[in-house]
């Protein structure tokens, strides 16, 4: 097993609220089910990915990426910025071969695909990788419904009906690492708190 760069994680305590009680319903993983779909180009976006329902001050903060030194794993992992008023890369959904995938602009107008890490044996478990060498699980769009049948505003990132994410401040980058809790029995690490990750624009209601 090769040695991988360590993500330095903060144990800072955050005051959080309980997640809304919702049922996640997956949508077909095609670009037309992501916000801002453009039929002429079959592309959705540009859009942002942002924190939602964490009950903390980072709700609405947008995603950026953190480069990985070991490029045999991936080019980068997606993170949530600590500040709201910061420039972030554009994200869109587009076709890669026969699959529609979210992708991030890493410069030069070139969009690199996003997928969930399948490195389950170390600290990369459940992270969103950019241009992963071994393609991981797809990031799927979901809608949320309350018990009374009302839909929670937004399109949420997840996989296999799971849309709860764990957030933890990464000391090295100063950004919040996010990992999908693919099993509801997974334990949180010290300092982690839960929330949703949403696509679109935090200034819009849906």
Describe this structure in words.
- The N terminus is likely disordered.
- Helix content is 0%, strand content 40%.
- By secondary structure, the chain is an all-beta fold.
- It starts with 22 loop residues before the first strand and ends in a 6-residue tail after the last strand.
- It has a nine-stranded antiparallel beta barrel.
- The protein has no helices and 14 strands.
- It is globular and about 45 Å long.
Describe what is shown at a glance.
Helices cover 0% and strands 40% of the residues. It has 206 residues and is mostly beta strands.
The SSE string, one letter per element, is EEEEEEEEEEEEEE
| Biggest sheet statistics | 9 strands, antiparallel, barrel
Overall number of strands: 14
Radius of gyration: 16 Å
Report the helical percentage: under 10%
Mean of pLDDT: 87
The strand order across the widest sheet is: 3-6-7-8-9-5-13-12-14
By DSSP (H or I, 4+ residues per run), the number of helices equals 0
Structural class by SSE content:
mainly beta
Strand content: 35-45%
Question: What descriptive keywords fit this protein?
Answer:
disordered N terminus; mainly beta; globular; 9-stranded antiparallel barrel
Please describe the topology of this protein:
Blueprint: E1 23-26, E2 37-38, E3 43-52, E4 63-67, E5 76-80, E6 91-96, E7 99-105, E8 111-116, E9 128-130, E10 140-145, E11 151-158, E12 165-170, E13 175-180, E14 193-200
Antiparallel strand pairs: 1-10, 2-3, 3-6, 3-14, 4-5, 5-9, 5-13, 6-7, 7-8, 8-9, 10-11, 11-14, 12-13, 12-14
